[in-house]
Amino acid sequence: GIEYKRLIEGHISDLMQELPAIAIEGLKGVGKTVSAGRVSATVFELDRVRDRELVENNLDVLSSAKPPVLIDEWQKVPAVWDHVRRQVDRAGVPGSYLLTGSIANADMDIHSGAGRILKQRMYALSLEERAIETPAVPLSGLLSQSAPFTFPVSGVTAVAYNDYMNEIVASGLPGIRRYSKTRRRLMLGTYLDYLLSHEFRQQGVSIRQPLTLLRWLKAYAAATSTDTGYSEILDASTAGEREKPSAKTTSSYREALGNLWLLDELPMWLTGEDYFARLKRTPKHYLADPALAAYLLDYGYDELTLPLADGKSPKTKFDEKYGSITGRLFESLIHLSLNVYASVNDAKLAYLKTRNADHEIDFIVQRASKVVAIEVKMAQTIDEKDIKNLLWLKANLGDDLTDAVIVTTGPAAYRMPCGVAVVPAALLGA
User: Fold this and answer.
1) CA distance 248 to 341
2) CB of 353 within 8 A of CB of 360?
3) What 8-state DSSP symbol labels residue 365?
4) Is the pLDDT score of 309 beyond 70?
């Protein structure tokens, strides 16, 4: 298989210069074990019987092994967490432990690691990590410029609309990407089945109606890149049924799917200062990999790329309120990439929407006082109406807005006369 260079590896190596213990969390199959293994000297894989029994019967083997020590799927032996926490308290040697896990298990008193074990989220492959292009506009540059809107923006790419549609369905999970188009769909189905049966039950959530859970997940996928209310998602998943699952049941689904890192809720941006008193506070919905959303909605490469006479693809349902599914899946791909770029820059990601919905900005990246606003447009060219919300934010924030970017499927990166940066998705990097 292809060796993917993961951005988190350099970031973890930097953190280990100072921190004794780091827990890498994320969706099953994103590559946590491979990446953590590359920066470790000793590895204990607790989903292997031999390693698990060794650690269960003698936790001290972890502290006598050569550091950095990777404890993979640590939650299989919950006592590991407290053992590592105690070792950090006792010695606190930088770069001692890495823990990886794919379930954020709420049953464990995981908060006991607060201030001692840093949690670092690992995401599926960003566009930069997929190596389809060399980025020319790094988020790190946009975040660290001393004067707003001065970072040089240039570059051209041959990556075009159909390539992005291919990336949506190709998956950001390394193990699934390597298959052909047809096999990939089969593997995505198998992967979801495994998560929704085996991994789901591991959290002690019983599913009396597996079909109801799957239908809820499909309705959630249909709400990709929107802030649709959870009651609307439930209604959409049980249309025409008299017997609906209770809100409590679907809330437990949501929590369990969140614990598996399958749902990627984007929070509303709230500033410490009262710039926007009437902000909405519902999160925006994304699945951890756009390929999973496309699979659940029955979209393959052909459905996303075959144009009709009116310019819409055959299965693109255009929703007046939320726009085309194709556009929202493209936004989901950008969301995944920005999650990766923001996390390795120690920045936070959110979205902005005023309560009366007259102004909305897809992504706000913030690190300390630096704020970069990002809009996503599936078009190849940009006109005045595409940037009106960015200009509104600039007028409201003034110099507190470090930069404003519009991400496109076009060929060139440049700054518009008003200062807004236009950047093809493939040219935006970490």
Assistant:
1) 35
2) yes
3) E
4) no
Structure tokens at 113: 């690691």
How far is it, in rounded angstroms, from Cα 430 to Cα 365?
12
Residue bearing tokens 């984007």: 266
The pLDDT mean for the chain works out to: 89
Output the six-digit token pair for 236: 């959409």
* Angle, in degrees to the nearest 10, between helices 230-237 and 247-259: 100
The whole-model pTM stands at: 0.93
Task: Say whether the peptide bond before residue 68 is cis (omega within 30 degrees of 0).
Answer: yes
CA distance 103 to 218: 21
**d(C-alpha 186, C-alpha 179), whole Å:** 10
The position carrying tokens 């941006």 is 269
What is d(CA 89, CA 21) in angstroms, rounded to the nearest whole number? Answer: 11
What is the signed CA dihedral for 408, 412, 417, 418, rounded to 10 degrees? 20
The torsion angles phi and psi of 227, rounded to 5 degrees, stand at -110, 35
Q: By 3-state DSSP, what share of the chain in percent is helix, strand and coil, each rounded to 5?
A: 40, 15, 40
Tell me the residue type at 372: V
Is the per-residue pLDDT at 277 higher than 70? no
Closest CA to 253 of 193, 207, 202, 194: 207
